[in-house]
Design goal:
binds magnesium ion; about 300 residues; globular; binds iron/sulfur cluster; Rossmann fold; binds thiamine diphosphate
Length: about 300
């Protein structure tokens, strides 16, 4: 006896067709605002959210063409506040989820919003691998140098001496340097900004969005509740210094970028490193296209079955 196997629908039937951009009204900041942000008054994350809205508006991105993905943390509440595709995923696992979105929906702008704990502690491994794979997406880490949501534990970027619930006598472990970590892992765009300089945040977001590949932005974002004043030294309005990456810096020079990233706080702001390297998206798309050409006439599910046969 033979059993008839129902064939899955053709891919075209699964992809919703949006009206052409020319006929559509572009979303305003008001329409992009989903919910009242539940962050503490004065939290640096408000500024990042406002600039993300500005970015979408300025770059005339349709709501269904942008997706915000996050893990867990105060900063990771981000997608709740955006009226567009969004995912609030497992702690530290935003990047693998976003990788899947990026690979399967190349038409979307994929943004990941993370905290220093989410990105470099529990998600540290994923940070390394997403960078080396050069997945086409933008990661913005809102670095407040503390675990905010869980009420003040030492994070991987907390400075030595920082007193918290997990280091009541002061942290003794050397913090990681997010920029050096990103460069060493193979990120192709590495930048630093601070939420107290809105124009600069927008500038870095635009450059990251235009970059083909894994773009990483470390954005200093003060936790006014559990680490107030952490970034006053980088804020001219509080007597600090906001110094740009020197104009003569060659962004393709990995060693120079690494050296610049090692400057003591408040350090530099701007693009430290940017190079072109084929993305995982492009490399895999080529493999898929070549194989599909070889298997022309077969349905996707038949190609998949054939591939599984080969793997036996
Ligand atoms: C598997 C798992 N471990 C621990 C937690 C508890 N937890 C939630 S958020 C968080 C750290 C958040 O810190 P960060 O990423 O810096 O974000 P912030 O709140 O500072 O923005 C921790 C440890 C969790 N939710 N899931
Ligand atoms: S606890 Fe800190 S990081 Fe969290 S919302 Fe409040 S100020 Fe922001
Ligand atoms: Mg944090």
């Amino acid at each position: 006896m033979t059993t008839a196997i129902a064939q899955p629908p053709a891919r075209e039937e699964l992809v919703p067709v949006a009206a052409p951009a020319a006929e559509r009204k572009l979303p305003t900041k008001k329409e992009l605002t989903a919910d009242h942000p539940t962050w503490c008054p004065g939290c640096g994350d408000f500024s990042v959210l406002a600039l993300y809205f500005k970015l979408i508006e300025k770059r005339r991105v349709l709501q269904e063409k942008v997706v915000s993905v996050s893990g867990i943390g105060c900063s990771s509440r981000f997608p709740y506040f955006v009226q567009a595709h969004g995912v609030h995923f497992i702690h530290g696992r935003a990047l693998p989820f976003a990788t899947g979105v990026s690979l399967t929906r190349p038409d979307l702008h994929v943004f990941v919003f993370s905290g220093d704990g989410d990105a470099f502690s529990i998600g540290g491994n994923h940070f390394t691998h997403t960078a080396r794979k050069n997945v086409n997406l933008t990661l913005v880490v809102m670095d407040n140098e503390v675990y905010g949501l869980t009420k003040k534990q030492t994070s991987p970027t907390s400075p030595v001496g920082f007193k918290s619930k997990t280091d009541i006598w002061g942290a003794v472990d050397q913090p990681i340097n997010p920029l050096k970590q990103a460069i060493a892992a193979g990120a192709t765009f590495v930048a630093r900004t601070t939420s107290t300089n809105p124009n600069h945040v927008l500038q870095m977001m635009e450059a990251a969005m235009d970059h083909e590949g894994f773009s990483f932005i470390e954005c200093l974002s003060e936790c006014v509740e559990f680490y107030p004043g952490a970034f006053d030294g980088a804020n001219p309005r509080k007597g600090g210094a906001f110094n740009l990456v020197p104009a003569e810096h060659d962004v393709t020079d990995e060693v120079a970028a690494y050296r610049l990233a090692g400057e003591p706080f408040p350090g530099r702001f701007g693009i430290f490193y940017q190079v072109k390297r084929p993305t995982k998206n492009a490399l895999e798309a080529r493999i898929n296209a070549d194989y599909q050409a070889k298997t022309a006439g077969l349905e996707s599910w038949q190609i998949l079955a054939r591939t599984f046969e080969k793997m036996k």
